[in-house]
Amino acid sequence: MTAAPLLEREAPPALQEAAARIRAHVVDMCAGPEGGHLGGGLSCADILAALYFSVLRVDPARPDDPERDRFLLSKGHAALALYATLAERGFLPVGELAQFGRPGSRLMGHPVRAVPGVELPTGSLGHGLPLGCGFALAARYAGRSSRSFVLLGDGELQEGSVWEAAIAAATLRLDRLVAIVDCNGLQLTGATGDIAPMEPLADRWRSFGWAVREVEGHAPALLADQLAAAPWEPGRPSVLIARTVKGNGVPFLAGRAAGHYVTLSPRNHARAAGALRASEARR
């Protein structure tokens, strides 16, 4: 039986403001000539804000610090949200975001190592969790306390390599490994539940030997609380299922597969930016 998601509590202003700035950058980048993955970028903005502004042990001045926590954006098509987060956290200039996806820019459609704070190139779905297992195992052998966090999409869970890694992580008792599922219920071609049903998702992960929690995915303070507390059970890897909305904050695209990848016209850019400002004003 699937447990109800944990309910939202008020976010500290700094955390809420960081999430709002990330969303605004995502919308701005999708108004560039190349467009971008707006839907999945907005669905994970609060997750990234919670990680980078409250949970991860990282230092923009020392992005290769061996004691750092590792983060892998397995759903690499949401790179624009990661770039926005890294810029707000100080890993790269905020002004560079305007070059997203343009010829000659290092801010490509999927993350690359040329960007400070990006651990490995990702985006071929299903690779992030196996890589996270490797990072967690390496930290164990090195005697380090660092944790490895992997953000997956729910459509990505259709990849068999995800579940092979899930088995390996549980068998190896990698309790410094934390997976987060951006569970927005949609993928490029429609609803994930229609294409490859995974529910009850929490029970599925438990059956693979993971400690599981569910949370409302647009509550950055609650996300931060849960992620900071991992590992939740000694000897078990942890997975947080974050229930989100694809295109969150932009009403004319929210909850629609059509928002997966868009190039916003000037009119729709203004509409989307205005909707985000109105939403923040109501908080």
UniProtKB/TrEMBL annotation:
It holds the Pfam family Transketolase_N. Keywords: Metal-binding, Thiamine pyrophosphate, Transferase. The keyword Transferase applies. PANTHER family: TRANSKETOLASE (PTHR47514:SF2), TRANSKETOLASE N-TERMINAL SECTION-RELATED (PTHR47514). Residues 16-265 form the Transketolase N-terminal domain. It comes from Streptomyces bohaiensis. This is Transketolase. Its cofactor is thiamine diphosphate. The keyword Transmembrane does not apply.
